[in-house]
Write a structure and sequence with these properties.
The complex is a heterodimer. By secondary structure, chain A is an all-alpha fold. Helices cover 75% and strands 0% of the residues of chain A. The longest helix of chain A has 40 residues. The two termini of chain A are 41 Å apart. By secondary structure, chain B is an alpha+beta fold. Chain B has two domains: 232 residues, P-loop containing nucleotide triphosphate hydrolases (Rossmann fold, 3-Layer(aba) Sandwich); 122 residues, OB fold (Dihydrolipoamide Acetyltransferase, E2P). Chain B contains eight helices and 20 strands. Chain B has a six-stranded mixed sheet, with helices on both faces. Chain B has a five-stranded antiparallel sheet with strand order 13-12-11-14-20. In chain B, helix 2 packs across helix 3, helix 2 runs parallel beside helix 4 and helix 3 packs across helix 4. The interface between A and B is medium-sized, with 17 and 27 residues.
Chain lengths: 291, 370
């Protein structure tokens, strides 16, 4: 009895220790967000006179308004709104196309193997290890040859190509766990390649589709390097615009506007994780546990 | 009319020969079993009949129609899979309807078919459920329903009972047989289980290493196996194989069996022309445990019932009988005895051997000497 009592108090203490640690870590990681949020609501005087961690003296949304529609990024002074739109116009088609193509690739690589399909898959896998920087030069040449002028169009193409190995990997790894008898049954029922894909395979891939959507959304929205290299002028994505805004060296440094703009730029990915995070974890482990 | 005819069918991947020339033929309404150990090519053959695998050479006819170059959906077949292969995103009703929709069966007719099939298999209450909400046995039933809905010339079953637990397996086995009797369907059924093969099949093809070792009725396979492999594969416990030397006395074949202490001469019956060249040479005597039993249980009125004595090494009661292991000619030999006549280890028992059921095999070619 005494022994088990000691054990339970020990377990309780250990648990409390874990929670305390987690709480401190959460505070640590949340600190930058706190600073960004409070700073974005402060006036410039407030920022200059106060301390980094202090709460705003007077609550103001002016910095957000400025960031959205009148902040200067280089010579342009139209705020972030145009670039936010650019990013959306680039992200949505790029995410959808790369997810759809990835699922088709995964379907072929797992259920319609052909001679050399394993080698093909290996090559794709290597693609996931290639850093952005390696791709830039050949990509620029290809884009040049294609003669694609439109910034958004170029970025969609680049992101689809670069994202394809990831989406293919996700779908292929899920589809190898789908029993091959299912394809056989469908073939006997008379369903062809696409009918089986759209009527049976895609509907059971929802968790993997969610993983791909979240992964690709984050990757594409947050990308800076491709954006800065392959787009120009008012076709730039929001990450590039944010950089230009923060680095503008004329006039007084408006920290509150910078912070508001940074939060605006981070908002979509934050939203995606809050809404879809549950699916993300479920989808990543979908192959591991048999439902 | 031939329901299924397989002629000289081969399957190779490069130099690997999976099937080495298969010839099989069944009539309408027959139940054909393909049985053999894993890797014998039985599933490959089934997939080739279904059109899911290419045929390297040879011909396959379904209902007298050459199907070599037809796609699975045009072969007039339906298949039931080991993993059931139900579409997980569809209800049972949609699972059954899927194939009908593709073949553009009118909606009213579809409903009629679904209701008829559901009634036949007593699964009306399952129609609106998803496969994940069904038990193993129910999934199996739905998979059969999907096949029945097609009303095909030929049903293909690929180890359909392997994923079920032992009790359910026996139940579904009976159900499949009943269904076959009621609907008169033609079935090709793949299994590795010889009991399933014996209980279900009207024709059994025992396969090994890409060849059909024997093709016949269950009783033929049991009574007159063509070689040592089939003899050992069919029947449980397996046939005893006792090495001995064939002798001849007045036209009757005799063998000497040694129980560890003494030689006993056993006469087997008229020697045949095929057996005669083996006189004086080693042969293998094949005798099933049930044909080696205590004299009181031996209900054969054969006048030449042979008696031999042997020492019991182990007894295994099964309930109705006890399996008695003795040592004859240096090999473990199992006899099926009445529990009261089984003796105890170390004791000497008398066993009667039915010479009309004893078989002789050539130890080199492994063929039966008939």
């Amino acid at each position: 009895m005494a022994d088990s009592y000691r054990q339970t108090t020990q377990a309780k203490l250990a648990r409390m220790g874990i929670y305390a640690m987690l709480f401190l870590l959460a505070l640590w990681f949340l600190a930058p967000l706190y600073v960004m949020l409070t700073t974005s609501f402060k006036s410039l005087d407030d920022i200059r006179s106060g301390n980094l961690l202090s709460l705003p003296q007077s609550f103001s949304l002016d910095a957000w308004k400025t960031a959205w529609d009148s902040a200067c990024t280089g010579v342009e002074c139209g705020g972030m709104k145009g670039y936010f739109g650019n990013s959306l116009k680039m992200m949505i088609p790029a995410v959808l196309i790369s997810t759809l193509l990835g699922s088709l690739n995964g379907y072929v690589l797992s259920m319609w193997r052909f001679k050399g399909s394993d080698a093909f898959f290996m090559a794709l896998l290597i693609g996931t290890f290639l850093p952005f920087q390696v791709v830039i030069l050949p990509m620029a040449q290809v884009l040049g040859m294609l003669g694609l002028e439109n910034s958004t169009g170029r970025l969609v193409l680049v992101h689809v190509i670069y994202g394809l190995q990831f989406t293919t990997l996700f779908f292929r790894n899920y589809y190898v766990t789908v029993p091959s008898d299912l394809v056989k049954a469908a073939r006997i029922d008379g369903a062809g390649f696409f009918l089986f894909f759209f009527k049976i395979l895609l509907p059971i891939s929802i968790p993997t589709i969610m993983v791909c959507l979240i992964w690709q959304t984050t990757q594409i929205w947050n990308d800076f390097l491709f954006g800065v290299v392959f787009s120009s002028g008012d076709g730039q994505p929001i990450t590039v615009a944010l950089n230009n805004l923060v680095n503008t060296s004329t006039g007084v440094k408006q920290y509150n506007v910078d912070m508001a703009a940074a939060i605006i730029a981070a908002l979509p990915t934050l939203l995606v994780y809050i809404v879809g995070g549950k699916f993300f974890v479920r989808g990543l482990t979908a192959g591991a546990v048999k439902g | 009319m031939g329901a299924l005819s397989i002629r000289k069918v081969k399957k190779s991947y490069g130099d690997t020969h999976i099937l080495k020339g298969i010839d099989l033929e069944i009539e309408n309404g027959q139940f054909l079993i393909l049985v053999g150990p894993s890797g014998c090519g039985k599933s490959t053959l089934l997939n080739m009949i279904a059109g899911l695998d290419d045929i390297t050479s040879g011909e396959i006819y379904i209902a007298d129609r050459l199907v070599n170059n037809l796609s699975p959906k045009d072969r007039d077949i339906a298949m039931v899979f080991q993993s059931y292969a139900l579409y997980p995103n569809m209800t049972v009703r949609r699972n059954i309807a899927f194939g009908l929709e593709i073949r553009k069966v009118p909606k009213i007719e579809q409903d009629e078919i679904i209701n008829r099939v559901a009634k036949t298999l007593q699964m009306e209450h399952l129609l609106d459920r998803k496969p994940a909400q069904l038990s193993g046995g129910q999934r199996q039933r739905v998979a059969m329903g999907r096949a029945l809905a097609r009303n095909p010339a030929l049903f293909l079953f690929d180890e359909p009972l392997s994923n079920l637990d032992a009790k359910l397996r026996v139940e579904m086995r009976t159900e499949i047989k009943l269904l076959h009797q009621r609907l008169g369907t033609t079935i090709v059924y793949v299994t590795h289980d010889q009991i399933e093969a014996m209980t279900l099949g009207e024709r059994i093809a025992v396969m090994k290493e890409g060849e059909v070792r024997q093709f016949g009725t269950p009783q033929q396979l049991y009574d007159l196996p063509s070689d040592l492999y089939v003899a050992g594969f069919i029947g449980s416990p397996s046939m005893n194989f006792i090495p001995c030397v064939l002798g001849e006395a007045d036209g009757v074949g005799v063998v000497t069996l040694n129980n560890g202490k003494e030689d006993q001469l056993i006469s087997l019956g008229q020697i045949s022309d095929i057996q005669r060249p083996f006189v004086g040479k080693p042969v293998i005597l094949g005798i099933r445990p049930e044909q080696l039993t205590d004299p009181a249980s031996a209900h054969s009125d054969h006048p030449n019932m042979q008696i031999l004595t042997a020492m019991v090494t182990i007894t295994e009661p099964t309930g109705p009988d006890t399996l008695v292991t003795v040592n004859i000619n240096g090999v473990k030999t199992v006899a099926r005895c009445h529990p009261r006549a089984a003796g105890v280890p170390g004791q000497s028992v008398q066993l009667s051997l039915d010479p009309t059921k004893a078989l002789l095999f050539d130890p080199v070619s492994e063929k039966r000497l008939a």
